[in-house]
Amino acid sequence: MDFTLRLEQEWDRRPEFLALNPAGEVPVLVMDSGKCYSGVMAIAEYLEEIAPEPALLIGTAEERYEIRRLVGWFHTKLGSEVTRHLVSEKLYKRFYGIGEPDSEALRCAAHNLKTHLSYISYIAERRHYLASGQFTMADAAAAAHISVADYFGNIRWDDWPQVKEWYMRVKSRRSVRTLLADKIPGLAPSKYYSELDF
Q1: Domains parsed from the chain with CATH numbers
Q2: CA-based diameter of the chain, in Å?
């Protein structure tokens, strides 16, 4: 699908953005018609219905449940236990000049990241992709958060060979390669961030 990404600094709480999503959170999908959609999973399932190929929510009811369960795990648990800390401490504080990163929050994120990488490793040993034999919304959700940790250099890939193998498969997808080209101005990514085979 053709789309245009627009940067929204949700913390600015712009009235124009709040008119699109009163929750004041990204992502927001704005269609050419002007109709707006918000909520990660709600948008994902909406897109799945209007553009079902390639399917990212696949299989039987039981298999789709597993995809949804993993998406929830990554966006809720991994997001709040790791990604939120990394972004607020390593990005927001730097660009807004609001103090030094909180070392306790970063230690907490590092500890939690190991737990999540262990879980992904456990799953990746048993499945080609996280929810099944093919790429699904679960892989997209996990990769979104893993890419943040990778951007900041928080993953020692040699310690996680199963996760690395899975992540290389994900990074080699054309849709993901495009996203890896995005960089934060003034903050360089880790050494292997954009490399497909690392």
Answers
A1: 10-50 (3.40.30.10), 61-180 (1.20.1050.10)
A2: 50
